[in-house]
Write a structure and sequence with these properties.
The chain is an alpha+beta fold and 91 residues long. It is 22% helix and 15% strand. The strands form 2 sheets. The protein has a two-stranded antiparallel ribbon. It has a two-stranded antiparallel sheet with strand order 2-3. The longest helix is centred in the last third of the chain and has 15 residues. The radius of gyration is 15 Å and the shape is elongated. It starts with 12 loop residues before the first strand and ends with a helix. The structure holds iron/sulfur cluster (2 copies). The site of one iron/sulfur cluster (SF4) has 14 residues, from helix 1.
């Protein structure tokens, strides 16, 4: 992408009003091979522990969330943000 990953705002957001932790067996955590999610014990909660590990424009884990609790920013918005960062870098 030509810009530092940490500046790209692409990662899952968890709607905690919907997330039921898959009744103790978080499917998104199992599914993602990049260690983005972590399970916190006290209190029990799904955390987005490593947002920068999320593959930019991947949304695959949404498919395994039966509670529809995962969301991502609008792709066009994020593309525009990346473009802006690139322009700033080249100035
Ligand atoms: S798959 Fe959905 S409901 Fe299950 S732990 Fe992840 S966000 Fe929560
Ligand atoms: S969108 Fe892809 S890379 Fe990001 S957390 Fe979900 S499965 Fe992992």
């Amino acid at each position: 992408m030509g810009v530092p990953r940490s500046k790209i705002p692409w990662y899952p957001t968890v709607d905690y009003a919907r997330c039921n932790l898959c009744e103790g067996d978080p499917q998104c955590l199992k599914f993602c091979p990049h260690g983005v999610y972590a399970f916190e014990e006290d209190p029990k909660k799904l955390a987005v522990k490593n947002p920068d590990n999320c593959v930019v424009f991947c949304r695959s884990c949404r498919k395994v969330c039966a509670a529809d609790a995962l969301s991502f920013r609008d792709k066009a918005e994020v593309l525009a943000a990346i473009q802006k960062l690139r322009e700033e870098k080249n100035q």
